[in-house]
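Please review this one:
***
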Amino acid sequence: MTRQARVRALAKINLDLQVIHRRPDGYHELRTVFQTISVADTLDIRLTPARRTSLTLRGNVDIPGNLVLRAAEACLDEMKLAARVEFGLRKAIPMGAGLGGGSSDAAAVLLALPALALRVVPLERMLELARELGSDVPFFLLGGTAVGLGRGAELYPLPDLPRHAGLVVAPGVHVSTVEAYRALGRGLTSEPAQNTIDSFQSRVWQAGGGSGSNDFESVVFAQYPRLGEIKRKLERLGADRAMMSGSGSSVFGLFRTKAQVNRARQSFEEMVFPISLVSRVHYRSLWRRWLQHLNLTNAWPPRSRSAR
């Protein structure tokens, strides 16, 4: 029996991002605050049990090594299920912008496939699968506002922030994450930069979701001055908080009113996206709405009452 669903993979911004040092495994030790936002890709998924697994993906953008297929393969292997799975992907989240579009697409597959297959994958195991796909993927299994430690995959919830209106400006510049880390010059050390950690803790405690600091801005703005200009312009236009997301290249501003957002969006020639912050409660209610035809329980991740 074929089961299908249309789900949305929401983007994220980083409300705070500190790079501590390079770790022995080659990754960097981070302290960050993730926040889901309303910009989203759309995934149409059709699953049909079969004797052999086949995966197909069609979309409005050709992405080599797309995480959608890797996530589907990992999830089906975990469920020990053979199936024909067809994906239709409509990208709206700009790529290479620090908004986590590919990671969110992968997480959406991990959330949707078990429900469609009437199977159960425990959250603990799902987080492990997500971490193997990418450092940002686990966050999108949870949503809302969260602190990310280590590579960013160790996550702890923060209280949901008010549903601020905002604007993401995506100038279409591709910033190499590898080059950004190299330019930062955070070396291998066994001693954490305690001052940086203390500063991060202080901001998060005082401002709930951090007061807005991104270590990458200094090196990325030096290479791409227009990004710094966008941040300063958002501040002049009344943004309470403006900063770059991830290692770039998108820059966001959070405003008090939608009227301010509407005025600000007219001031940029670049691609702009009006946004709102999406709380954890709202994130999960959206998922239950998208999969409600599968007769879900109240559990998280989404689970059909017919699951076995």
Observations:
- The radius of gyration is 19 Å.
- The chain has a mean pLDDT of 92.
- The CA atoms of residues 27 and 288 lie 35 Å apart.
- The first strand starts at residue 3 and ends at 22.
